[in-house]
Amino acid sequence: MVDLERIKAESVAYFRALDENTTLRHHFRGADEEGGLWYFEAVPDRGELVVIKQAELTSVGRLHRYSWEHLEDEHGFLTDQAIDPEEDPLETIPAEEFQRVWTQ
Asked: What is the Cα–Cα distance from 31 to 23, expressed in whole angstroms?
C-alpha cells in the first residue's frame, strides 16, 4: 500500500529545501491554448531546472499559485517535470516580472 502522506511530506521537504537553499533562480513565462499565462521559478538540481514556484494567470484573470507551501488544489498542481529551455516553448523573463505576478 502506498503511503500518500509520506510521499507528500517528502515532496514538500524536497521543494522547500530547494527554495530555501538555492540562490541561482531562473524565471520563465509561457502561454496556453486558452489564453492563460504560466509563470515559473526554477532552480538547478542534479543537472536539471526544477520548478519550485508556479503561477497560472487564467484567461479570465484568476491566479493560481503552487509551491512547497501549496502543492496542489482542485485546479492544478506544482509541475513535477523539469524545464528544458532548449525544448519547452517558454520565454525567459526578469525575476521582477515573476515576483509581480506571484505577489499580486
From this structure: 26
